Amino acid sequence: xxxxxxxxxxxxxxxxxxxxxxxxxxxxxxxxxxxxxxxxxxxxxxxxxxxxxxxxxxxxxxxxxxxxxxxxxxxxxxxxxxxxxxxxxxxxxxxxxxxxxxxxxxxxxxxxxxxxxxxxxxxxxxxxxxxxxxxxxxxxxxxxxxxxxxxxxxxxxxxxxxxxxxxxxxxxxxxxxxxxxxxxxxxxxxxxxxxxxxxxxxxxxxxxxxxxxxxxxxxxxxxxxxxxxxxxxxxxxxxxxxxxxxxxxxxxxxxxxxxxxxxxxxxxxxxxxxxxxxxxxxxxxxxxxxxx
Length: 292
What we know:
Order of helices and strands: HEHEHEHEEHHHEHEHEHHEE
Helix content: 40-55%
Shape: elongated
Number of helices: 11
């Protein structure tokens, strides 16, 4: 082996070691010094009806704390969902402020709880035909007491308080119960308005004028300031890469997603879904949960 060949072989052996120690040094000292080539973009998909926040908040937290993730794309395809999960995801997104950008991309529908979540993002993209807004809360439930009367079925209820069984489908609701429910819904509605106002930096009175439950297209939402710009998912990704100074080849990574309702049913994981369905009444807005 010639001298040149020996030097070449030595170089090939030593170079990876030097690079390895260099990367470890930079990572331990300050991740912001790491070359941009090693940065990635995180992707969190919020889809279907929002009945739980655990999986989404976990993904968001992991991406926020991951030094290799420069920013996050939040893709929303949801008509809304339960109040508390929507609020928990909203608060997790707010934690990105001052840390790294998180861009919301609204799909075919991102309304009610879906918009609640999007409002906390750094910037909101939507297509002209995306259905969004629906800032409101609604509660409804079936009543089958008339059918029970026809069938001759009577259910005896013993309770400790006058309104302990309010919302029962086995009897007509009293006026007092309607007032109590309305007060609860109004309070949740005001929470929704305040959070959107805070996140979007829009006066509460301006939000209230739009918060009658109406849905809007992306074009309409842009005119009233509920979103920031019209654009596709790809355009949202390009925008994020641009503000981060990353190339178009920057990888977009995604954490494992929760199974859909259909997948859960097919896999036999239905106990929680059945329990949830018994105590919740869905409408086009955040869920209002009635737990008997």
